[in-house]
Amino acid sequence: MSDEEKREQANLKAQKELEYYDMSSIDSYPVFKDCDEMLTTPDCFYENLHRTVYNKLKEQKIPIRLAVKDSVYLSITVAKSGKIKYDSIFKCAKEIDKFKMDSLLQTRLNDLPVIESARKRSIPVSSSYRLPIVFIPVDSLEY
After folding, report:
1. Cystine design at 32: which of 5, 48, 124, 136 (Cβ 3.0–4.6 Å)?
2. Is residue 84 assigned to a domain?
3. What tens digit of pLDDT does each residue of 86-110 get?
């Protein structure tokens, strides 16, 4: 068998292997430094992501007026380098000005941490997530 035939056979084998694997899912979630790498559940990732976004948003009051508790869903990407990036608002309540909120989120969430990225077959990959954020009117907070 010639070198060219071996290469072609290897390429065909690799192609078939890629078809076998579901590349739309990940094998392991991104990992924050506070998470135990041995845990395979996404709980620690989501808890830390929520906490990180919450801490960024609570630094200053958010200048929106709400009559009732409402929410937005954010699209967040963790690059294969581990950099967390706010992408956009995926879904927004009618009462919230989507463009104003997106601008505010772009400003507040521009400096998110770098973590260990998601993995597929032990290879770092980019992954995207939808994160719900609930806004509660200040007047309705209980003390």
Report:
1. 48
2. yes
3. 999 988 888 788 888 899 899 999 8
Report the pLDDT averaged over residues 24-39: 78
Residue 20 forms part of a structural domain = no
Of 82, 129, 127, 75, nearest to 105 (Cα)? 75
- Asked if 130 and 89 touch (Cβ cutoff 8 Å), the reply is no
* Pair of tokens at residue 70: 């409402």
